[in-house]
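USER:
Before I trust my own judgement here, I would like a peer's view. Write it directly below this note and I will take it from there.

ASSISTANT:
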Amino acid sequence: MQVVCSFARCFSFYSDFAIFFQALSEARGAAVVVFQLIDEGNEASFNETDIWKEDAESIYNIYGDIELDNVNFTYPCRREVSVLHNLSLIARAGQTTALVGSSGCGKSTCISLLLRYYEPSLGQITIDGRSITDYNVKQLRKNIGVVSQEPILFSMSIYENIRFGKVNATQAEIENAAREANAHNFIMQLPYKYETLVGERGIQLSGGEKQRIALARALVKQPIVLLLDEATSRTTIVIAHRLTTIHKAHQIYVLDNGTVIEHGTHERLMAKEGGKYQAMIKRQQTEKIDDDNDDLMNIQKATEEDEKSILERSRLLGNSEIVKMNERIAASVSAAQTFFDLFDRKPAIDNTSTEGRELVNFRGKIEFDQVKFMYPIRPTSIILQKFQLNLKPSQRVALVGTSGCGKSTIIQLLERFYDVTSGQLLLDGIDIRQLNLHWVRSQIGLVSQEPILFDLTIAENITYGLENIPMEDIVNAACRANIHQFIEQLPQGYETRVGLKGSFLSGGEKQRIAIARVLVRRPKVLLLDEATSAMDSHNEQIVQEALVKAQMEDPSRTLLIVAHRLSTIRSCDMIYVLASRHIVENGTHTQLIQRRGAYYKMLAQNNLQ
């Protein structure tokens, strides 16, 4: 008995030290990255000790005159690829300046340089006549705000997400900013209003709702200059593919391969026969179908009332961990109960389940029959009510409607991220809940409006989750997604790493890689949730043609498109208009125009005819 007790004490003693050994092992692995960062050479223009120091000499009043003078730039991770070539442009205080051009031409790079994420290789950037390097970085970024094409929200309440723009903002200031961004009304309709949790990366909200909250976060400080990277608004510096966004800009710069090839007002550029801008306008004859036109007008009014505009940055918060062994051991006792509660909980949809049918000859027929749906965290807010939708095999079907009307919810139900509250969702006449979950998801390809890439090579991102895919298939998928030519221009081609969340690529480049990833799987059902939102009209047209070809490869392939752009959906076999939780109108583009109903009004309100 004494031997057993001694063994137990030794085992307990070893268990205590095992925690230390685990922490040491983790620290050793992390140290490699830390030391690499420490040993990495710094840019000569950055002083690590003074960069965040607020000394009086570097504090200047910012009025908003911005000038880029013969700027050249290459990213440190891709020094062989020149992004900007002798780029020169001027953005005057109190004016609206727009940058337009094809995907990857350097528009978003200009914003990164203004935020001093990077320094120009050659040339100079000045603000109010002073070199941008004269400004204290902390002061500069404090006064710079960006609403990007992929808004970043944190797993907190709406109130807290907006307050990140101004940590000492009052409730009244936050609500006023939400009104300016046209977000207040939809927030007040939520059960918990401003205290509603948005979920990880804002997953509980639609794309338009996330964008408006991000805009409110930027507006809460009543900025002087505002930078919008593909956000749906008009203000001082607008990065845009959607050309109707910038018709009233005081100055429009057209970029191509990192340099300015045209500039002027909309009228002046349209008068230039054979010009790049004129060609882009003609190609992109129609824009966004969305009757949230008040968003644009309210935001424009809010920014035009300011003589000067400002840049205020959405802060990216990192998590920091302080590990104390005694606290860690003590915390593990209370955490154990939470762990076992979670372990014992049975999820509504079991991702590990092997049960359910697999259809041998799946044709791609989809039917929503009297579907009612409410999100679990918002049980009082009905998203879909008596919803009816029928998709036949090989059909191209589009869903249009206002932001938050349930378009993306339909995609989530098809992927079985959620189950319907009542009614049925049928695949080839079989309730989706009776089918094997892994089989269902293997038959569906999804390209969302916020593409997710991993810190791997381009080839690995395209084949992610698949094994033994021939290089020929990877290249073929990339060609159909109109990304092959861009990849071939990179020094390492398909072996180029894309960075964390695809940070080394532009929005359009990331989206096309995501499309290639879906096409290489040859799905029976293809779901496009604003898949071409980050592309210019030229690349969008090419990708649309590729998607048509992809559908022709398999006659039973069903295509469901959630989109705002008319050019994306006008050729669809059927268009469904969503409003008030259900479909209010459906038909072809020609039929809906002739009826002069909800669809026609959307076009008229957005000057799309």
